[in-house]
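FORM 7B: Structural annotation worksheet

SECTION A. Query
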Amino acid sequence: MKIVEIRTHVVAQELTTPFGMSQWHWTTRSSCLVEIVTDDDLIGWGECFGPAEANQSVIDNSFGPMIIGDDPRETLAVWEKIYNRAREWGRKGVAITALSGIEIALLDLTGKALGVPVYQLLGGSPRNVECYASAFYYDGPWNNDITSEAKHLQEQGFAAYKMKVGADLSTDIERVRTVRAAVGPTAQLAVDANRGYSYSEAVRFIQATEAERLWFFEEPVIPEDLASYGELRQRSPIPIAGGESEFTRWGFLDLIGNRRVDVLQPDATACGGIRETLLIAGMASAHGIETIPHVWGSAITVAAALHIFSALPTVTPSRGRRGPRLELDQAPNALRDDLSDLHTAAVMTVPQGYGLGLEIDRSVLNQYER
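SECTION B. Predicted structure
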């Protein structure tokens, strides 16, 4: 079996109702999807995090031609070939997000070629995965009506949530209190500043919201400021989370080895792929750090995450302990909801079909392709 073609698809959904985080408002959701074709007409699908056109350019002009003729089942060898060729200039950023999309597509292809789901390739087991609602954006479809949004999410079966903070400290503190009152005292409630606070602002936020018993505090400061991550973790009663802005196991060494965070959040479409996510999670488990992967993207990303959850190493394997929840973004996302036969819910099952277990609807792909 040989790779004969790599196709990239830039897909974009123009939003009728923009939604916001601490840094900006989203008016468009876009992604680069990777389609790898073999000489016996098997197709594997992957997805890249970050700027779609940049990912497309890296794959079309560099990485794609490099692996034509390779056996897609030799996923590790292909990954190493690309990474080693790009090592001088591509150890972080778009080069790794492009490589991530390729790796996910290779595993999808391998599962299809062998007639097994990806989770079996990983040594995982099919199970139900509880999800948390990543919601309560600034503006968006609910227009900051937190109470109504909370009621809707509860009706959908969610019992855990994450909300956006990081824009204005005093407003954010009141928003957290409002969401906590809306979801109830026993619900898991996390916050995500998307790197929006300074160190001193993050400290004041932690002090002001301690009574709300937050689940974790994601990306309180910029990812380059590792010292602040470590100091916040040492003094915060709220677990500190981060990692979506990091790449490969080498990039995660400091976060893990120096215990900068309590919760690690690699994203398979960004950090190097499915296997790399599990390698990072294995490193984290050896240091007593829980991994809750970051998930943002189309149905391909969600399916890849479900397979990862089937094989995540446990930090404390004990009876009755709830496993990590999968992030399920609640902002408008036709590329997740309409692109395939995958249906999202508060509790999801690892797909049972070959490979990632998805059937891509090419009419939807064509509708959103640029």
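SECTION C. Observations
The domain at 120-349 is CATH 3.20.20.120 (TIM Barrel). Residues 37 and 43 are 5 Å apart (CA to CA).

SECTION D. Sign-off
Analyst initials: ____
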